[in-house]
Amino acid sequence: MIVYGSSLSPFVRKVLAFAAEKGIAVDNKPVSPGSDDPDFVEASPFRKMPALRDGDFTISDSSAIIHYLEAKYPEPALIPAEPKARARTIWYDEFGDTILCGCGAKMFFNRIVAPLLGRPADLEAADKAERDELPPILDYIEGVIPESGWLVEDRITLADIAVATGFANLSHAGSSVDPGRHPRLAAYVERMLGRPSFSLWVEKESRFLGQSAA
To answer: What is the CATH number of the domain that holds 44?
Structure first.
């Protein structure tokens, strides 16, 4: 089973962490968005990351891939069956993809990706996103983390994976959670990104970015 895409993408990392938490062995084949790699294009006709190949089956989009993996490998269940818990999990997946990562992308692209590609960076847009857009998002997550430390059903689910992956990119972009203002969230992020399913990829990414900046 092959996952195409760089783990620097929060969506690729989400799939890789989800597979790891399920105990599913996958090979990661790094490709760039828009790559002409024929195997990647077959799996992702619009050249978006991530994409998956499982034998003769191919599919793209992180949520589609994750629902495929959950259906094929139902244990341990990372998408709850109980209706309300499932709805909350799907909400957090969407929240992570669009709201958290949408804000984080403005920082990550302009501070990290654009310089790597030799393209103009809009640092003012990155600073504005961190100053104006990010704090309400952090306030929201701080307020919804239960005492258990898990977003849904007092156990790890896709909800946690989908939210945590965005914080890896925020960290790479130089934005950290202030434990004074958001103590529960700061502890949550540290614990989630410290899990083996995330830490392997985050450490590799940090080394790559450090070498690229040297």
So the answer is: 3.40.30.10
pLDDT digits (tens, 9 = 90+) for 192-205: 999 999 999 999 99
Q: What is the pTM of this model?
A: 0.96
In whole angstroms, how far apart are CA 12 and each of 128, 178, 192? Answer: 26, 26, 16
Handedness of CA 101, 103, 104, 110 (dihedral sign): positive
38 with 135, same domain? no
Answer for the pair 163, 96: CB distance below 8 angstroms, yes or no.
yes
Contact in structure between 157 and 204 (CB atoms under 8 Å): no
* Residue that finishes a domain, picked among 35, 53, 72: 72
pLDDT value for 211: 77
As separate numbers, helices (DSSP H) first and strands (DSSP E) second, the chain gives 11, 4
68 and 14, same domain (yes or no): yes
The answer to whether 43 touches 4, Cβ cutoff 8 Å, is: yes
Q: What is the DSSP string of 7-75?
A: TTSHHHHHHHHHHHHHT---EEE---TT---HHHHHH-TT-PSPEEEETTEEEESHHHHHHHHHHHS-S
Give the whole-number percent of the chain exceeding pLDDT 70: 99
